[in-house]
Amino acid sequence: MTIHIDAAPGDIAETVLLPGDPYRAKWAAEHFLSDVRQVNAVRGMLGFTGFWQGHRVTFQGSGMGMPSLSIYVNELIRTYDAQTLIRIGSCGAMQSHVGLRDVILAMTATTLSSPSASIFRDVNFAPCADWSLLRAAAAAAESHDVPTHVGGIYSSDTFYDERPDLNEQMVRHGILGVEMEAAELYTLAARYGRRALAVLTVSDHLETGEALHHDLRERSFSDMVEIALEAAFAE
Ligand SMILES: O=P(O)(O)O[C@H]1O[C@H](CO)[C@@H](O)[C@H]1O
Ligand SMILES: O=c1cc[nH]c(=O)[nH]1
Description:
This is Purine nucleoside phosphorylase DeoD-type. The chain is α/β, with parallel strands linked by helices. It has eight helices and nine strands.
């Protein structure tokens, strides 16, 4: 048990999929896992452990933003010894060739700040995905009928952004989409020698202003979840 996760030792699988939304964790666990058990409800940040094709998996909500994700990922790694951590999140598209509901595999995650920024001082650390997971996710995506893009994303501290100039620089440098957690996930995975990846579904488009209803963000991103599961257990 930790301060934020009520699971007993052994209740959390080595492979943890992390949606920001705890109700996406509930939907995904009910939809994709068998023999499912709820393992966390502290602060409503739901977690579930079950089996996907014989493999033990935990879906654990991580909340919104890097400070929240940092709490869950620190506890999942340091107390529960999680080895593979895959974020399954929504994001805003930043390029015109990226469409609503497309999948993005985040090779790198640029950020202005993160809970880890202070330990790097003057260094601009480059948070990046685990190569074996990224390669496996790209291969898995080929058998899904969903346009998939691999490249850099931007992990922002704000959803309601007041710095359009920053977004302009991201767009100019080919950043595919914006979300709020991956950079800290990649940094913590690097620190503790774990595997991490962010598989994202485009829920908003910064250029067109399109935005999916919250019900769809919670319960419709099946391709993203399947790609993450297939990557996690690829041979
Ligand atoms: O859908 P999730 O996984 O929460 O991810 C995105 O959605 C939230 C903002 O609506 C932020 O957490 C952002 O990163
Ligand atoms: O951080 C996020 C997440 C989803 N959509 C956005 O536009 N931003």
